[in-house]
Amino acid sequence: MLVHSLMAGVAVFVLIPHDAYWMRILLPILSGALIFNLLTMVTELTITHPTKAAKTVVTMITKGQYKKLFWIGVVLVGNVLPLIVINIVPSIMTLSIGAILVLAGIYVTEKIWIEAPQRVPLA
């Protein structure tokens, strides 16, 4: 959640009109946060989980009913595309597009992270 707050803060700040100086500062911060977020997700989803319920949730997210939402909405749209867009052709317009994609990806991530564990039966 800390990484998401950094990503969301930078994304919102990007969407407020600024000069090119600020964009040169925001671009590496957003890029670094996206890379760190991807590494965090890989770690969270590949570590050995202590409970059967946690393993079930990870499987549900990566291979089950949330797989399309996760792989397309979170990984591709919310992380990989913004990272590519803002670094291939760095401009105020592409940084703004990347910021919108980041915010959409955070929304989808939080939706999955809240819903998926609730789908696992308690007993």
Short description:
With 123 residues, this protein is an all-alpha fold.
Number of helical segments with 4 or more residues: 5
Separation, N- and C-terminal Cα atoms: 29 Å
Main pleated-sheet profile: none
Low-confidence spans: pLDDT under 50, at least 5 residues? none
| Tally of DSSP β-strands | 0
Outline type:
elongated
What does this structure look like?
The chain is mainly α. The protein has 5 helices and no strands. The chain has helices spanning 2-15, 20-46, 52-62, 67-88, 92-118. Helix 1 runs antiparallel to helix 5 (92-118), helix 2 (20-46) packs antiparallel against helix 4 and helix 2 (20-46) runs parallel beside helix 5 (92-118). It is elongated and about 55 Å long. The mean pLDDT is 92.
Any key phrases for this structure?
82% helix, 123 residues, 0% strand, mainly alpha
Architecture blueprint of SSEs:
Elements: H1 2-15, H2 20-46, H3 52-62, H4 67-88, H5 92-118
Helix pairs in contact: 1-2, 1-5, 2-4, 2-5, 4-5
